[in-house]
Amino acid sequence: MTKRKIEIMDTTLRDGEQTSGVSFSVSEKLTIAKLLVLELKVDRLEIASARVSEGELQAVKKITAWASENNNIDKIEVLTFVDGGKSIDWMLDAGAKVQNLLTKGSLNHLTHQLKKTPTEHFADIKATIDLAAKNDIKTNVYLEDWSNGMRNSKAYVFEYLDFLVTQNIERILLPDTLGILTPEETFLYIDEVRTKYPEIHIDFHGHNDYDLGVANVMEAVKAGANGLHLTINGMGERAGNAPMASVLAVIKDFLVDVNITTNEKALHKVSKLVETFSGFRIPVNKPVVGANVFTQTAGIHADGDNKHNLYFNDLMPERFGRKRKYALGKTSGKANIQKNLQDLGISLNDDELKKVTQRIIELGDKKEVVSQDDLPYIISDVLDSDTIEKRVVVENYVLGHAKGMKPSTTLQLIVEGVLYEAHAQGDGQFDAFMNALKKLYKTHSKKELPALIDYAVRIPPGSHSDALCETIITWKREKNEFITRGLDSDQTVSAIKATEKMLNII
């Protein structure tokens, strides 16, 4: 059986950028566009809205220049408007070849926003389509507020579609602009359009206001949609758009009669890059790309994984370039701990394992966060063993911060029983501390310090300003990333404690 091809259009750089507080630079847009096309292998990219700003124009020029050089220009699309040809002029300047023309898909929008009749609107649309064709620009047409149009003014929607199918267009784009549809409605409405116009190409553009974005996409595909509009990490206005990662996983695993050509192994890489550029954090429980979604917490689950992968499903982390983890906390059993010990290359007998398990449970009851990197310290403490030594000790330090002067640190470090001292300045107290530490390692050690790639400080919800804070630092050494944590009432001191843990791991 020949599978039906579904086009995947990414609109992260257009609709996703409409997330509150998000704005990509020119270079960031170009980098994301390249990754989406070359690594994730989406079929099309909607990269901008016409006439927004000079910066937007420059970004589109960069992307279209790259796309033209690499024979991908037909994959690049721009949102345009019925504005007497101004958007077309903008596209010509930008070098774009495909417009997604925004028009009114509900009588309510047409009447109250444009204050025009259907006949007047259709005439303006035809003029825009014809002008685009004269300039070798292909046209796809958005029916803005189409979902409300189908609910409340269906006669208008089909009058409009009757007109559109006579025009020189490539695709009809049907958005659930306000994210109001149920899955049942999505299937019904797409099916109605599909049945009446079996030959036209239909895209579905879903929003997630009721958290039904993925379910609606599934129904749209079942009803005969030819293309889907998605965003990385579900970015977009309000509750966002249908998320790329979840939809791709659902299609592959549940809609076996359709075919997509995206590369799901690149999802995590692209999602993390977009998170970095946008500042829009991925929730830890976000399906497929969240930090915790391939982490088993309950001990019974880890035990089951050891006994014939009893708690695995089809969402294997390796599919998405990731690895399964086993959390440590009060619900952890011996199996969780054994999994983490295996990763560290540490073996314990049954009695030792029992003692370590009990200590981790105690820490979990106190709401302490335990990571794999904490295990060697817990083992050393519980077992009073010299197997894992604390080879590096931050013996003493003086942190100085005075008005009009750069912060400074004098640091004493004991390495393998030898005391070293250094002084340095920095942009802040912790930066000064790290500069002093780098001095010591450059002078007295051949080891390269790992790169600090992320730094986060957390205070327990509801706590006062004098409460303990946890500093979580992510380090990168060669190709491996690892996390260390420090706990103290002083933020800088907690960061220093986290750094001391790192020094004993490397």
Descriptive overview:
This protein is an alpha/beta fold and 506 residues long. It has 17 helices and 18 strands. Strands 2-3-4-5-6-7-8-9 form an eight-stranded parallel barrel, surrounded by six helices. Helix 1 (26-38) packs parallel to helix 2, helix 6 (146-152) packs across helix 7 (154-164) and helix 12 crosses helix 13.
Instruction: Tell how many strands the DSSP assignment holds.
Output: 18
The tally of helices reads 17
Nearest-angstrom radius of gyration?
28 Å
* Biggest sheet features: 8 strands, parallel, barrel
Broad CATH class of the largest domain: Alpha Beta
Unreliable residue stretches: 298-309, 384-388, 461-467
CATH superfamily placement of the largest domain: Aldolase class I
| Gross morphology | elongated
Strand order of the largest sheet: 2-3-4-5-6-7-8-9
Strand % is: 15-25%
Query: How many separate domains make up the residues?
Result: 3
Q: Roughly how much helix do the residues carry, as a percent range?
A: 40-55%
Secondary structure topology:
Elements: E1 4-5, E2 7-10, H1 26-38, E3 44-49, H2 54-69, E4 76-81, H3 86-94, E5 98-104, H4 107-114, H5 118-134, E6 138-144, H6 146-152, H7 154-164, E7 171-175, H8 183-196, E8 202-205, H9 213-222, E9 227-230, H10 244-254, E10 258-259, H11 267-278, E11 295-296, H12 299-306, E12 325-326, H13 334-344, H14 350-365, H15 375-383, E13 392-400, E14 408-415, E15 418-425, H16 429-444, E16 451-458, E17 469-477, E18 480-488, H17 491-505
Parallel strand pairs: 1-10, 2-3, 2-9, 3-4, 4-5, 5-6, 6-7, 7-8, 8-9, 11-12
Antiparallel strand pairs: 13-14, 14-15, 16-17, 17-18
Helix pairs in contact: 1-2, 1-11, 6-7, 8-9, 12-13, 14-15
